[in-house]
Description:
Chain A is an alpha/beta fold.
Amino acid sequence: xxxxxxxxxxxxxxxxxxxxxxxxxxxxxxxxxxxxxxxxxxxxxxxxxxxxxxxxxxxxxxxxxxxxxxxxxxxxxxxxxxxxxxxxxxxxxxxxxxxxxxxxxxxxxxxxxxxxxxxxxxxxxxxxxxxxxxxxxxxxxxxxxxxxxxxxxxxxxxxxxxxxxxxxxxxxxxxxxxxx
Amino acid sequence: xxxxxxxxxxxxxxxxxxxxxxxxxxxxxxxxxxxxxxxxxxxxxxxxxxxxxxxxxxxxxxxxxxxxxxxxxxxxxxxxxxxxxxxxxxxxxxxxxxxxxxxxxxxxxxxxxxxxxxxxxxxxxxxxxxxxxxxxxxxxxxxxxxxxxxxxxxxxxxxxxxxxxxxxxxxxxxxxxxxxxxxxxxxxxxxxxxxxxxxxxxxxxxxxxxxxxxxxxxxxxxxxxxxxxxxxxxxxxxxxxxxxxxxxxxxxxxxxxxxxxxxxxxxxxxxxxxxxxxxxxxxxxxxxxxxxxxxxxxxxxxxxxxxxxx
Amino acid sequence: xxxxxxxxxxxxxxxxxxxxxxxxxxxxxxxxxxxxxxxxxxxxxxxxxxxxxxxxxxxxxxxxxxxxxxxxxxxxxxxxxxxxxxxxxxxxxxxxxxxxxxxxxxxxxxxxxxxxxxxxxxxxxxxxxxxxxxxxxxxxxxxxxxxxxxxxxxxxxxxxxxxxxxxxxxxxxxxxxxxxxxxxxxxxxxxxxxxxxxxxxxxxxxxxxxxxxxxxxxxxxxxxxxxxxxxxxxxxxxxxxxxxxxxxxxxxxxxxxxxxxxxxxxxxxxxxxxxxxxxxxxxxxxxxxxxxxxxxxxxxxxxxxxxxxxxxxxxxxxxxxxxxxxxxxxxxxxxxxxxxxxxxxxxxxxxxxxxxxxxxxxxxxxxxxxxxxxxxxxxxxxxxxxxxxxxxxxxxxxxxxxxxxxxxxxxxxxxxxxxxxxxx
Lengths: 180, 310, 424
C-alpha cells in the first residue's frame, strides 16, 4: 500500500485562481463596501487573509476579514469525539454585511452549513456567498459555491490536500490517491 | 489531542494536558456567553440531568445554563422532590434515571464518593458537582481559569487557601489541580480545620494567616459554616473573623497584584470583609462568569468522548 | 463410630504436643493419641502432610440469630464456621431481641441443638438492651449458658456501669468483653482518621478513640480485679496499654482480627464498603503493632469478628454502609500467612485459635487430651485457593478478600466426633 499524488494546481495556478476570485468578488459586490471575508478554520482562514490582501491591492481598500470555527455547529459530535476548538474571531457587527465565506475545499457541504449557522447566530447579514479554492463534488446538502478556483472530479476514496508555505500562503493543491 | 475521560469525578484524575484543554475550551465558550444569541447547537438532542441531593443554587444554575447554552435538554432533580425521601437507594434512583436515557448526569451529593458509586453502576457520563468533603472539580477549574486570565501563566504561582480545609471539597480539588500544574499551595486554617497528613499531597500548612499571606499571588477564602461543621471546631465566628478573616490590612501582605477569590456564598464580615470582597483585587464575580464557561467545556468534552474511554 | 486420623502433624498447644501422631476418636471423644494406632473397624483419614489441631474456636462471631436471619442464622453461620475450620463459635448478643436475658440465651441454645453444625456458645449483653443504662441479669445469663458478657458493637459509655459489671462478674468468673470506643471522639467518623481519610474526604475515627477507651477499661479491671477481655484491638496504643497492664499483673486478655493484622486503611480507596468496619482498618504502623502483639503474646486470641451483612447494606454510599465483614472462612490462611512471615510459630498461631480462647471463656474445648470432646480440625497448610465471595458458606458475602488467592485451608472439620465438613 502506498499513496500516489497528482498536482492539480501548482503555485502559479493557485495564484491565477486567487486573483480571478478576487476580481469576481469585487465585480459581483461592486467594491468593498460592506464586504466581509470570513474564513472557515482551519485552512479557509488563511485563504481569506490572502484574498483580502489581493482585493486590497486591486481596489486600494481592504475588506473586513474574520474567521469562524465551526466545531460547536458540527452535526457529527459523538461520532467524531470532542475536537479541540479554534476561536471564532469576528470582531465586528455582521448585520447587513455581504459576507463571503471562504474555504479551501468544498466537499459534502456540511461544513458550510455549520458555518452559515454560526454566522447567523452572530447577526443578520444581507447575504452570504461562498468562495472555495477547490470543489471536489459529492455534495450532501443543497449548497453551491459562488466562486470556484478549480472543479476537480474525485472519488470518495481520494483526498484533496492544499499545501501552504511557512507564511501560510497557499502554494499547491494535490490530489491524493490511496494506491491499492 | 482529544479528551479521554468519560466521567469528571475529580481533578485528581486529570493530567496537565486535560486541565489545559478544559481551560482552553472554556476560553472559546466565554464569547458565546457575552453575545446576543447565547446558544450554540452543539449538544442538541442530548439530555443532561442535574441530580442534586444537596441544596445548591449557584452550581446548579451554572450547570443548567451551561447545558442550555449548548442546546442540551437540561432537567433538574433536587433531593427534596426526588424519591430519596421515600427511602430509595442511590443505585435505584440512578437506574430509574438511566432508564430514561440521559447522556450526562451532573451530581451533587453529601456523601464523599457518591459520584464514583454512580459511575461504576450506570452507562452514561457522570460529572461530579461536589461530593461530601471530597471533590468539586468544576469549581477548581473555574478558579484556575480565573487565575489564568489574571496571571497568564499558572506554573510557579503561590496560592493561599484559607478556611475549613478538612470539610472543603473546593480545597481538595484546587489542591490536586494546582499541584498538577506546578503551583505552590498554602493551606491555612485553625488547628481544628486542617486534616491529617494533607501536607503529603504537596502543600504547605499554615495556622497563622499573616505568615501564609506573605507574598502570595492568589488568596482563596473558603466559606465558614458553623452550623454544618460543628460547634466544637471554633470558639466563635467573631474570633474566626479576627484571626482568619481577610481584610484590607492583612491583604497588603500578599503581592501587590494578588487577586482575591471566594467560591461563594460569602459570609461578609466573617471570612472576608466587605472592603476586600468589593475591593479592586476581588475577582469573585469573574469566577461565577467563568463557571458557566467551564461547565460548558466539561459537558462538551464529556459528551464528545466516545465509548470505552475512561 | 470410630475415626482414626493417621500420620498428621498433630499440634495441641494446651498439651505441648507437636509431633507426627495418629489420633483415634471414639464415641465423640478423643480416645487415643499415639504412633501407629490400630485402624480395625475405624474410618481412616490420611492426614500425611496435614496439620491436625484441636477444633478451632472463634470467640467473636455475629450469628445474627434471632432477628437478622436475612444476614445469617445459626445454621448458616455454623456452616461457615466449620468450612473455615472452626468447631466452636461464641456469638455476640447484638441480635433482635438482644441476648440480655435467659429466654434469648435458651432460644439460641435450642436452635443450635436443632440446626448448628458447630458448637455455639452464647455471649450475653452487659447492659439491658445494649443501652448502657443498667446491668442485664448477668447471673441468670451465665446460668442459662452464656460464657461471657459484652455490649459488642457499642462501648459501655458509663465508667461507673463498666465498673459495676466487672465487680458483679468477678465472683461469677464471667469474663467481660469490652468493645472499647470513646464515642465522643468517634463522632460520625466512618474510617481511620489519617491521610487516606483526608484524601477521600471521609470523616475519620482517630486511634485515640480506641486507646482512651481501652485505657479506661483496663484500669477498671485493675481496680476491680474483674476479668476483662478487650475485643478487636486495632491500634498500636491499645496493644501497648494491654502489654503494660499484663506486665503489672492485671487480669486482662485481648484479641485481634485477621483483617486488622492484614489490611490497612488503604483498602478503603475506591470507597470500598467491604473495607468498612468498626474498629476501622488502621495504618501500617498499627498493623505492625498488632503483629508484634501477637508475636510477644500480648494479644492472646485471634477472633474473626465475623459480621455478616446483606448486599443491600453494603451496596450503598460509603458513609451509610454497615460496618463489618465476614471472616470465618478466611481466618486460617490469613493466620498461617503470619507464620510464613515469621511473626510467630505454628504452635503459637494454633494456640490463639484454640487453647487461648478456651481458657478465657472457660470452655472444656481447645485441646486433644484423652477423653476431651472430639473437636478436630485438619488443615492443609499448602493448599492454594482463591476466595470467591459468592461461594462462601455464610449467607452474606461481604468480604474484602474476594478474588484473593490464599494459602492454607481446613480440609476436614470434626465436631463431637462427627465429620461436619470435608473440603471437596
